[in-house]
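User: structure tokens for this one?
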Amino acid sequence: MLEPSNNDQLPTIPGKRYFTIGEVSELCDVKPHVLRYWEQEFPNLSPVKRRGNRRYYQRQDVLIIRQIRSLLYDQGFTIGGARQRLTGDDAKEDATQVRQLIDQTVGELEELLVVLKA
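Assistant:
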């Protein structure tokens, strides 16, 4: 799971529908060639491909990539271990992931409220 402390180090995910591979690379602090490799290794990571085979990632994809990054780089999992952890039906992990998404959304809404009040 993406720990809250690691989440603070990464930029906030903007409220866009689709992100290019370059944008996701910056949002997740991972090089584009690593993202392309992870697409082959993790079946639940599959960005939309359009014109000229260009990748467009959705918000859910960015969250999965951040989770993969945390598992591999911060928690020391192997690719196989991270894949198993992501595909496992562990309700506690799902609840934690949902909670993190809710917390991030609340934070973004609070920031928006401050901007609107100004």
